[in-house]
Design goal:
InterPro entries: HAD-like_SerB (IPR050582), HAD-like_sf (IPR036412), HAD_hydro_SerB1 (IPR006385), HAD_sf (IPR023214). With 239 residues, the chain is of the alpha/beta class. It is built from 10 helices and 7 strands. Helix 1 packs antiparallel against helix 2.
Length: 239
């Protein structure tokens, strides 16, 4: 039963470094290599970018170029193949990298009767699988163009990144006649400031340096998680 007593609301969650540690596209790359979609050299390149991303966030990585390369992986492949790949990487790689505190917050929103949507630059199919497996309301991701179910290498409406995230969040709230002043947003990156400023309850999660300064100046709540907490959660799941 819902515990909500206030107005209807949505909680929007970024994925990379917010819901899970690191970049989801790296794990897509590893999964694609295992399925022989790409070469070992591609995986090594993704791995280097992942290391930089973990160390300094999006400030020190050409993340847009990396995302486009990740989308390229699926050119000529089918949507069903990407969905299958997404389930495989969720089970083998993503589930152990989920931040337990952020997942707990998302579930608390659901318990309170709010919708929970992922808003992410990762491919829509990957985002859908993450949302489905976590039993969230839905996901808003980067849409890859298809012809007869086969990816063409083109994007629909560009990468869901920066101000585009704010646009799609606004659209989903308007479609549900939900006041954004009552909504939440969670992110680690300064690139998501447009999304965070859109809602009445912005929260910085393990923020990069720019977002941390911005959040402190505005009195936004800051969530901080540590790798030790992630490892402890993983160890408890194995028992």
């Amino acid at each position: 039963m819902s515990e909500e007593s206030g107005p209807r609301a949505i909680a929007f969650f970024d994925v990379d470094n917010t819901l899970l540690r690191g970049a989801s596209l790296y794990h897509v790359g590893v999964g694609a290599w295992r399925m022989r979609f790409i070469s070992l050299a591609d995986v090594i390149a993704f791995g280097w970018s992942q290391t930089r991303f973990l160390a300094v966030g999006e400030d020190g990585v050409n993340i847009s170029r990396l995302r486009l390369r990740a989308m390229d992986i699926m050119t000529g492949r089918t949507r069903d193949e990407l969905v299958t790949l997404s389930h495989e990487i969720f089970d083998s790689r993503l589930i152990q990298r989920l931040w337990p505190e952020t997942v707990a917050v998302a579930r608390a929103h659901l318990t309170a009767g709010r919708e929970v949507w992922l808003v992410t630059a990762t491919a829509q199919e990957v985002a859908d699988v993450i949302a489905e497996r976590l039993e969230l309301t839905g996901a808003l991701g980067t849409r890859l163009a298809t012809v007869d179910g086969i990816f063409t290498g083109q994007l629909v409406d560009g990468i869901c990144h920066g101000s585009r995230k704010a646009d799609v969040a606004r659209e989903i709230a308007q479609a549900r006649e939900i006041d954004l002043a009552h909504c939440w947003a969670y992110s680690d990156s300064h690139n998501d400031i447009p999304l965070l400023e859109l809602v009445g309850n912005p929260v910085a999660v393990n923020p990069d340096a720019t977002l941390r300064r911005y959040a402190v100046a505005r009195g936004w709540p800051i969530m901080r998680m540590k790798v030790a907490q992630l490892k402890a959660a993983g160890a408890s799941k194995k028992r």
